[in-house]
Amino acid sequence: MNTKTLFITGASSGIGYATALAAARRGWNVIGTARRVERLAELEQAVAALPSPHGEVLALPADVTQAESLVEAVRRGVERFGRLDVVIANAGLGQRGALVDSNWADLEVVLRTNIDGLLHTIRASVSAIQKNGGQVVLISSVAGQIATPYTATYAATKAFVSSLARSLRLELEEQGIAVTDMLVGRTDTEFNEKRRGAGARTGSNLPTMTSDQVAESICTAIEKRSQTVVLRPFDRLILLGNTLAPWLIARLAKKQYK
Ligand SMILES: NC(=O)c1ccc[n+]([C@@H]2O[C@H](COP(=O)([O-])OP(=O)(O)OC[C@H]3O[C@@H](n4cnc5c(N)ncnc54)[C@H](OP(=O)(O)O)[C@@H]3O)[C@@H](O)[C@H]2O)c1
Questions:
Q1: Could you tell me the sign of the dihedral formed by the alpha carbons of 82, 87, 89, 91, in that order?
Q2: What are the distances in angstroms from CA 98 to CA 115, 182, 218?
Q3: Is 150 one of the annotated active-site residues of the chain?
Q4: Which of 31, 59, 54 is nearest to 44 (CA)?
Q5: For the chain, what is the total number of helices (H) and then of strands (E)?
Q6: Peptide bond between residue 53 and the one before it cis (omega within 30 degrees of 0)
Q7: Residues contacting ligand 1 via CB (< 6 Å)
Q8: 144 touches 115 (CB < 8 A)
Q9: 3-state class (DSSP) for residue 83
């Protein structure tokens, strides 16, 4: 009756897919949303194949740029499981290339997905989240904390996410709802293939996490109701370096894209 229930956007691949699976392994129920329904069907099959006991997944199509689509997915999820404890605003899209050379269409889809999509997800779900124990998890990026030439618009959207997390935490504390800012570093997913824009990634030797590692960190952050999570020592080093010598980190970041 009281099984924890999560709502996740971007559950069709990468971090969202792995998090849905990791949550179901813990016995939590998952409402997994995205646009690619065939990938969501794969998620349902993967959850069904987990050793018992495991949580259930309800896969629902939803486009985060469409507020109504999220309202409907939350409604159907609560109808199915009877409660909602955690929302994970994960859906996102990368970008590369010099700002002034970028097509507006590419920049706009990044803004609509990463900013509007995040806001629509939060606004559609918070009223359904359990008071005193509920949680909003926002998937941000280390890139949003540092200078990141040639992927500047993407990084700025993630700075927006982390800024919003700080303020939203105070707005929701009276309802007993926690807000977690996950500062994710480079992770091996479809993310890089799908980045909008014409630039290239030129630096390749930085350590990369798997989506399963990130998923485990997200589940741990849910269990601990963490506020801000930097997942690994390498990223903590980058952020410390950015505080002490931001020019150095900016120079290193500039070598990563063109
Ligand atoms: N990979 C990294 O290095 C990295 C680093 C830091 C932060 N992050 C963040 O992690 C999050 C997940 O990215 P990922 O690495 O797992 O990439 P991914 O494998 O490309 O997954 C992105 C997910 O977002 C969904 N999505 C995109 N646009 C959408 C829309 N309009 N409506 C609904 N869903 C949409 C995709 O589903 P559909 O296409 O099926 O809709 C997909 O499930 C993103 O917010 C990203 O910024 C990633």
A1: negative
A2: 20, 26, 32
A3: no
A4: 59
A5: 10, 9
A6: yes
A7: 9-10, 12-16, 34-36, 39, 63-65, 90-93, 113, 117, 139, 141, 184, 186-187, 189-191, 194
A8: no
A9: coil
- Per DSSP, 176 falls in state T
Identify the bridge partners of residue 114 per DSSP, sorted by sequence position. none
The Cα 217–Cα 175 span in angstroms is: 25
Residue type, 257: Y
| List of E strands, the chain | 5-9, 29-34, 57-61, 86-89, 135-141, 178-184, 187-188, 209-210, 228-230
Condensed to tens digits (0 to 9), the pLDDT of residues 157-187 reads 999 999 999 999 999 999 999 999 999 999 9
Cα distance between residue 64 and residue 89, in whole Å: 9
Residue 253 · residue 241 · CB < 8 Å: no
- 185-223 confidence digits (pLDDT tens): 999 999 988 989 986 666 667 899 999 999 999 999 999
Q: Looking at 17, 150, 154, 257, which residue is catalytic?
A: 154
Q: Which of 43, 76, 56 is nearest to 3 (CA)?
A: 56
Topology adopted by domain 5-254: Rossmann fold (3.40.50)
